[in-house]
Design the sequence.
């Protein structure tokens, strides 16, 4: 029995230390970060679009965390500056992702602000990029004989358009595009911003 007590105490101490180091300390560090001045909260429409984004599993192929130049050539790829903690102030849960089968999307709203482009791309990615392996989402759309007032008609090249009628975006597709367009973190990062690698902008510049 006496042998188990020191082992139990050591186990609790290790667990407490790990919790402090990996949970409490990072939490305090992140909570000290203020919401960037250029970041706005999502609208109800964008939040619903975000729910669609999550339900479709977009995070499995797309990240939302551009890296700093010393980690990856994301800036050269046109994906924007390195992500900071404040960029995710309104994201619950965050969609950082671990795979990049497709491009990073944190700033896709700045790179591709066209609603029409996104609707076409969601309906059939290969109508824009023949080499794309992204799945199509035709269930987010419907084919009508004739467009009605207020309909968002999807522009499709020959070979992808239906034989008759028009493709119209459903509300879920429109809301999803609204969310994608809201992904714009091109504002300037605050001087004390915490980067995704744990360093602040000031610490990096003084290294």
Sequence:
């Amino acid at each position: 029995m006496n042998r188990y007590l020191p082992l139990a105490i050591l186990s609790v101490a290790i667990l407490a230390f790990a919790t402090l180091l990996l949970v409490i300390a990072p939490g305090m560090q992140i909570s000290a970060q203020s919401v960037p001045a250029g970041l706005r909260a999502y609208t109800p429409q964008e939040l619903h679009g975000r729910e669609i984004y999550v339900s479709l599993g977009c995070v499995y192929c797309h990240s939302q965390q551009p890296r700093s130049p010393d980690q990856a050539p994301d800036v050269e790829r046109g994906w924007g500056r390195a992500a900071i903690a404040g960029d995710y102030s309104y994201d619950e849960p965050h969609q950082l992702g671990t795979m990049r089968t497709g491009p990073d999307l944190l700033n896709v709203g700045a790179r591709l602000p066209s609603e029409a482009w996104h609707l076409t791309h969601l309906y059939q990615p290969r109508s824009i990029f023949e080499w794309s392996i992204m799945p199509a989402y035709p269930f987010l759309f419907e084919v009508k004989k004739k467009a009605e007032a207020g309909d968002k008609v999807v522009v499709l090249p020959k070979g992808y358009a239906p034989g008759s009628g028009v493709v119209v975006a459903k509300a879920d597709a429109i809301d999803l595009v609204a969310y994608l367009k809201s992904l714009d973190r091109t504002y300037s990062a605050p001087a004390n911003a915490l980067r995704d690698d744990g360093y602040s902008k000031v610490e990096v510049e003084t290294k």
Summary: The CA atoms of residues 51 and 61 lie 16 Å apart. The chain has six helices and two strands.
